[in-house]
Design a protein that fits this description.
The structure is a homodimer. The first copy, chain A, contains 13 helices and 13 strands. Chain A has about 400 residues and is an alpha/beta fold. The longest helix of chain A has 30 residues. Chains A, B: It comes from Williamsia sterculiae.
Chain lengths: ~400, ~400
Amino acid sequence: MSSPSLSSSTVRPSRALSSIRGSAIRDLLRVTERPDVLSMAGGLPATDLIPSDRIAEAASRVISEASALQYTVSAGVRPLREVVADRDGTHPERVLITHGSQQALFLSAQALLDPGDTVIVDDPVYVGALQVFQSVRAEIVALPITAEGTDVDRLERLLSDGVRPRIVHTVSNFHNPAGVTASARTRRRLAELAADHGFWIIEDDPYGQLRFAGRSMDPIPGDRVIRLGSASKILAPALRVGWLQASPDVVELVELLRQGADLCGSTFAQLMTADLLGDSDFMTAHVSDLRREYARRAAALTGALRTDLGAVCGVEFIEPEGGMFCWLRLPGLDTAILLDHAVRAGVAFVPGAAFAVDAGLGDRLRLSFATLSPDQLTEAVRRLATAVHDLGRG
Amino acid sequence: MSSPSLSSSTVRPSRALSSIRGSAIRDLLRVTERPDVLSMAGGLPATDLIPSDRIAEAASRVISEASALQYTVSAGVRPLREVVADRDGTHPERVLITHGSQQALFLSAQALLDPGDTVIVDDPVYVGALQVFQSVRAEIVALPITAEGTDVDRLERLLSDGVRPRIVHTVSNFHNPAGVTASARTRRRLAELAADHGFWIIEDDPYGQLRFAGRSMDPIPGDRVIRLGSASKILAPALRVGWLQASPDVVELVELLRQGADLCGSTFAQLMTADLLGDSDFMTAHVSDLRREYARRAAALTGALRTDLGAVCGVEFIEPEGGMFCWLRLPGLDTAILLDHAVRAGVAFVPGAAFAVDAGLGDRLRLSFATLSPDQLTEAVRRLATAVHDLGRG
C-alpha cells in the first residue's frame, strides 16, 4: 500500500487535506509485505476464513437479475436495511447502508462537524477516525484510554471545565489498537453525559461479533448514539458494506450528504450481503467458526508472548477476549527502534507511536493475531524475542 | 428515491451540509415512479441494455478467489488501473479508481478547494457537481452554457476582471442536462486559460463513449485537467466503478483523502470491471449495441417532438449526437407548472429550473431517451403534447 508524501507535491492541497496525518501504518505495511516477513502489523481479517464459496453463491443468485446492476437509493437497498435492523432490534428507517463503516464515520463527521468543533477520541486512537476528524478540521482532544474503555471520569472533568464536545468517538468492543472493551459503567456514563451535555457518541463497532471469551456487552444506550457496524470482519471486506444506526434525523442528514459523496452503494453487493446476513443458520455457524479460530490464534500468540518474549523483557498486555489485536507494553523499550531489528529478524508489528495523539506510547506496539496460523504466530514471537535481544545488545 | 427535508430535522447540521441544495430531481423521481407514468425524468442508463450475463460471468470468474474478497489499496486494483490507462493512452500512476465518478468529483473538490474558493460551472449544471461544490462551501460562479459547451469567451472576460477560479467544471460530452458537446475551440481555449491562470479543469465525462452521430472529440488537452470517467453508463451502475485521470501529484492527494473517506473500493467489483473492460472484443460489440439502440430511441423521441409536440407549441432543441438526454425549450411555457399537467397525463420529465444556478431556465426541460422503448417514447411525447394543450386551456 502506498502512502503519498504531501511535501513532494507541487499541487496546493486544501486546508482540509493538509490537516490529515498520513497513515504511518500504510507506509509500514509496504515495507513489511516482503514474503520472508511474518507480519502481525496488518489490520485485515483472515483471508483464509472468508466464506468465499457462500459469497460466490450469493453473487450468482443476485447478479442473475439486471435490476441488481442498476443504481439504488442513497440509504441502501431495503432488504439489507431490514436485515440489519432485524439483527440489531431496531427499525429500518434508523439504518443507513454505507460503503464500509469508514464511510459512515466520514459522512457522520461531515454532517455534524464544523471546523473548530471539539471531538473527543481515545488515546491511542483508531487512525481512520483521527484522519476523518482532521479532514473536517475539528479540534481533537484525546483522553488516554483505560481498561474500561473511554475515560469517562476524565471526560466528566473536561465537561465541568467547560469543554463542549460535539462528538465523542470510541471503538466500544475490542478497541483498535488498545484491545479493551468499554465496561457497562463506561457505556452508561457516556450515555448520561451525552444526554446532559448534548454531544453525539459515535460507537464504532466493527469487532463486536468477534467475541471468543467473556461476556457480551449491550451497546451504548440512549438516543445520542450513532452506531457503526460492518460486514468486513464477519463476511468480507470487499463487499464494502457497513452501516450506521441513528435517529431518523441523523440518517436523513447523512443520506443527503451521501448523494454528493458517491450517489449510492452497489445494489448487487448490498443484495449479496442481505442474502448472507439474512441466512441466520449460515451466519451462526460461520461466526462461531471465526470465533473459535481467532481464539486459537490469540491463545497461540499470548502463550508465546508470556514464555518466549517474557524470557527476554518485561511484557504487559490484556488478554484479548475478541477482535483481532493484542496491545503490548514493553517497559523501557522504544518500539519504533525495535521495529528495524524486528524486520531484520523477519517479523513486523505496528509501533504504538503510530496510534498516539498526545501520549507518547513509545513503549507500546500492536500485534494482530488474525492473519497468521498458530504455528506462524509462535515463530513470529520467537523472532520478536530475537529482535528484543538484538536491541538490548545495541 | 427519498430526499430529506432539512427543515424538519432537530439535529443541527454542519455548515457544509447546510450549504447543499437537496436534489429536486430525487424528490421528483419519487412522485413519478407510479407505474402508469412514462418517465423521461430519470438519469439512469437502460436496465435492459446492461450486459448482465457477461457481468455474471465476470463475477463467477473473479469471486472464486478469496483474495478478491479482501481489502485493496486506496488507488484501486492494479489490473483495473492498467486497463483504464491503456484504453485512454495514459499511465496507470495517473489513474485512480473511485466508487463511481461522483466520488472522484467529491474527492477532487475536497482535495483542492477551501471554503470561499471560486468554482466555475455551466448553467444549467450537473446537480451532483453543484452539491459537491456547495458541500465544500465554494463560491460558485455559473456561466450560461453555449452550443459549444462552456462559454470560454465569458470565462476569459471574468479572468480579465480578476476572478480567480480554482476549478472550472464541465461535462464535456453530451452535457447533463444541456446535451451539448464542448467544441475543439472550447477545449483548446479552456486548456490555454487554465495554463495561463493556474486553475484546474474537471472534465466530467461519463457519456463520451455513447456517441451515435457526429465526430468524436479529443479530450481537453494539457496538464491542468482532472478527467473523470465511469463504467456506469457503458457497463452497469452497480459496479460503482469510476475513475479519475490526473497528474500523479493530484492522484496522490486524492488517494490520501480516500483513506479517510472509505479506505478503498471493492476488490471483486474492480477485478470484474477489469475483466469486462479488458475484453476488447466484447466491449466493442457491446458499446456498438448501446450506441445503435440509444440512437434508435433518440430518433423516436426527436421525431415525435417535431411532429406531435411541434403541433401544439414551439419546440427548440439540439439534436442529440450521444449520451442519454435531450434538452428542450418550450418558449413561453413554465415547465414546472407543465409538470403537474404532464403527470396527470401520464408522463414525467425534469423541469429546467431543477438544473438552474442563476439563469431561470423556466421554459426548459430535460428528457431522457435512455430507458423507454421507441414506442413508449412516442406515446410519452403524445401525452406531453396533451399536457401542453391542457396547460394552454388553463
